[in-house]
Amino acid sequence: MGRFYERELPKGYVEALVVDAYDKKSSRGMQLLALVIAVIAFNMVLFFYIIPQWSEIRSGFSIIGGIGVIVAYFLYVSLHELTHGAVYKLMTKQKVMLGFKPPAAYCGVPDIYLYRITSLVSLFAPFTVFGILFVGLFFLIGDPFVKTLILVLLALHLMGCAGDLYGAWILLRKLRDPATLRKDMGPAQIYYTRIADQDD
Hints:
This protein is α+β, with helices and mostly antiparallel strands. It has one domain (5-199). Helix content is 57%, strand content 19%. Strands 1, 2, 3, 4, 5 and 6 form a 6-stranded antiparallel β-sheet that branches. A hairpin with a 2-residue loop joins strand 3 and strand 4 (104-115). Helix 3 (63-92) runs antiparallel to helix 4, helix 3 crosses helix 5 (144-160) and helix 4 crosses helix 6 (162-174). It starts with a strand and ends in a 6-residue tail after the last strand. The model has no long low-confidence stretch (mean pLDDT 92).
């Protein structure tokens, strides 16, 4: 069908890997990565910003700001998935599926098989877009309390990208053939490789 996807699984391909966000066995790597990112990100926020700026942060504290960051996070989760969807729509013109099943929101294009390049662009899109946005806001806004809230959102963003980064790692390190295909079912990802690659 082109460089970006196939409508049907081509001949000579076999299922190589399944990662399901709701299956503990297949998602252990993703969960471990999320934990590592969370520990690193929140400790950096704590030790490099909150503790040194504590007196200024405390003086600017407001309940409304705390509620605001919770609302902003749920808005971010929706926008994160819509960013995946926008990439899929631009690159494939196919129907995008969006959904939420606690504890995760998801986006997928379950009716087609994505080539590696399409998958990588989609996987890295929210990480890049919102990373730049939150870092930019941190430097543009002067209020220490608001800066803290932005850093918390940035840390949550990095943690929320664990599944995307794990998927990218699979494609960049484990299944490196550009012809690798991925079926994005939303919560579950199925990876396919050419039979000839099984001997490598």
